[in-house]
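Example with several molecule types.
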Amino acid sequence: MAAGAGLKEDIQESERLQHVMGADLERVSQRVFEVTELSYPVASSIIHEIVLAGGKRLRPLLVLLAGRAYDYSERFDELITAAAGVELLHIASLVHDDTIDRAALRRGKPTLNSVMSTGATILVGDFLFAQSAMLAARTGDVRVVSVFASTLGQLCDGQLLELFDAHKTDQQIETYIRRIYGKTASLFAGAAEMGAVLGRAPESDIQQLRQFASEIGLAFQIQDDIFDLTRDSEGLGKPAGNDLRQGTVTLPTLLFAQRTASGSADARLLDHVVSGDDVADDVVDELIDRIRSSGAIDDARAEAQQYQTLARERLAVVPHADTRDLLGSWADQALASA
Amino acid sequence: MAAGAGLKEDIQESERLQHVMGADLERVSQRVFEVTELSYPVASSIIHEIVLAGGKRLRPLLVLLAGRAYDYSERFDELITAAAGVELLHIASLVHDDTIDRAALRRGKPTLNSVMSTGATILVGDFLFAQSAMLAARTGDVRVVSVFASTLGQLCDGQLLELFDAHKTDQQIETYIRRIYGKTASLFAGAAEMGAVLGRAPESDIQQLRQFASEIGLAFQIQDDIFDLTRDSEGLGKPAGNDLRQGTVTLPTLLFAQRTASGSADARLLDHVVSGDDVADDVVDELIDRIRSSGAIDDARAEAQQYQTLARERLAVVPHADTRDLLGSWADQALASA
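Resulting structure tokens for the full complex:
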């Protein structure tokens, strides 16, 4: 009964977020749509399909909310522009990710790399980076541009670390955190900082909002990494253990490795599965069972919960009560989608 | 005798350019070196080799000279930073170009893509774009950042057009010009604009310097395209007709196509060579002979000369006589290297 009421409340909250911010988010999508009118065959329609499919638009929403907590109406146009820049930066990085991973679908639509050459896809991704940088510059705020550029650097850093750290089971937890910070949390943190800067928040509030977004981003990615080991292989989408198959060692797997005696059967099984060689499905499933029953998943979940708790406490600084609640709903929505 | 004296003068001029600007250019290279200290195996040393090999450094030199014509000493640090950003943007685009072309060498050194996976090379290129954008932001000038971002967009546009226009012999001259503007002249124009903006030049001078750089860039690329048809295949480096083999239709070839009756033997030979199919060397050589003897190369050369003349006239606005001469030497050096 209590759980049911909580769920209903969550739904109402998320509906309220959509109700209050929906029209502004539409403006953001419109801005993204305009700057992705490309004069090359094929490219434009595919990018537009990805933009229209929408995704969760968590990042532009965060830009707007961080600004709304302070000076919203006066900086409205700059905030819409920055939010569009952040969303486009996200899309550009997805275009390059999909090229690297040779993915066929994105948001249920064919990827660019599935219909164009690798060369053309690299260049279209670069072009979208350029357009997103132009949006950042169009805010007229040097700090926004700086945050934008350093966020792009951190994104690449996270993805490069994922490539170079693949197949290694002796990683430090800190290395894993740096990696997921770059890959996921950095763009959340950058979005919050841009919004708060444009809203003319006091510096200490900017830092708190940045941290809030970063910690929700870390919790989001840890949850996503857990989900890769707990989801039902029978369902739609990727099978369970996709990260393991690719040699990507995530938090639950690292925690499992730490409690495994070197040279033991478990350690050998783990090394074999993440080696990058072709491994039979039942061997991957066996490893997933061992990780599940080791308690490593509960420990990873506790870690995500800790980041989430830290993050939510930071919202106390937000002076505007209504926006503070919406930022809480934003966090719920982000974490529900991981 | 007169020609010999002219040549000697040119050498002295280029030595003077090196003498006056060499130390400042070294600072630029140092700045580029610092921001390319990457914490990933292999990547850092390869990028550093490319940076140290130096190339002609025409673009950072142009940033510095455009600033030097106005307010140099007061804006020195910003100019060095912008020049480093421009050089790094150039290097980042070379990393992606080499990946697309699967090139093995750059400035005589192994390319990143020859020793790393395509995925890692794409990400390192993106990382370098991010670092170059951070340098642009570090100038603290919103217009510099804007020029930077739009230049990146134009670069991608030029390269995408080259991909999509490949194998087509019925292109308009205007399309060719837009393509080489994006591919080559845009970064020259952007470099001049950034330097002049940072040097606090009057707006009309900024526009003249931008045009000067753009026209030298166009002349440079037309010369380079001519050279692909006139160079000796016996020499080092790429064989003559490399563009034709790749299906890239350049100005001399377009001018040749325009004077060729549709359905004639020449027209069929041209279509065959640029079709993208494997074509025997002697067939390519035959086409090169036909283009050479058609007068198309002289006409293309005249076009390059026209851009060059236009460009040099614009230098009259530069108030500082010494820098005006150095900008003239810069143009000589740029055109001598094409």
